[in-house]
TrEMBL record:
Domain of life: Eukaryota
UniProt KW tRNA processing keyword: yes
Domain Methyltransferase type: 120-222
UniProt keyword list: Acetylation, Cytoplasm, Methyltransferase, S-adenosyl-L-methionine, Transferase, tRNA processing
DNA repair as UniProt keyword: no
Name of the protein in its database record: tRNA N(3)-cytidine methyltransferase
Amino acid sequence: MPVDYEINAHKYWNDFYKIHENGFFKDRHWLFTEFPELAPGQSQDHLEDLPSDNKRSEVPECRTSEDGPGLKIEQHKCSSNSLEHETQTAPVEENVTQKFNHLEICADEFPGSSATYRILEVGCGVGNTVFPILQTNNDPGLFVYCCDFSSTAIELVQTNSAYDPCRCFAFVHDLCDEDQSYPVPTRSLDIIILIFVLSAVVPDKMQKAINRLSRLLKPGGMMLLRDYGRHDMAQLRFKKGQCLSENFYVRGDGTRVYFFTQDELDTLFTTAGLEKVQNLVDRRLQVNRGKQLTMYRVWIQCKYRKPLLSSAG
């Protein structure tokens, strides 16, 4: 049965986005509080001009089989280890994406080649990180790449009115497929961001996926991650039959999720040649008054940098 979930993974995620489209997750404006690297040089005044319901009070979205788009949640911190603040176009033709899978990417011939600051989001979904970055980061040298396993999600990004092909390139990509190329050369990216995406990968494929991403970073470039931590409420609510392997589960809709420890993530990143900048546990108490539920959430947030003097390719 676990093999079926792996083979059909794209189907389960396509079905998810066909059902929810862009109504499931809120835009992640909390990212600029947690990850100022996404909008370097932006004044705090500029960030405070964002709509109040999209700022730091927003709950970082965390997908569980029982969560829904209209959930009203109160949030309280419940650990001294918590972060110090509360956080919260026409479509590109398919053959364009396919073309990059079989090309040797040349240093002067790729989307965004003239950009001076390049960000890649892996597992972008319908653009809830990408569009806030494009809205908030007004650097004329910025170019944002975003990819997802789901062709349905990428189509929703490309057809969004905020999608600007002059500043952004969205493409379908399987993080675990070693035969697929990224549409950028090695050592070309300033930032790679993974938000609740690595947890959807089969555990024994995670290291190679991070290794490949690490090679795309410039020396001094950063990999940013936020994902599910061990003993998160979502993990505790899974039934016995939903456990595929240790700490790896399948949801009711066929999508899968892993729950990390800080040490596991540290090993993944350092094995890929990156140096730790941040590795924090963020514990939250969420209260859903509608369902009269109290939910203890556990997330891990990481920042790892590629060494300035690195011989790794």
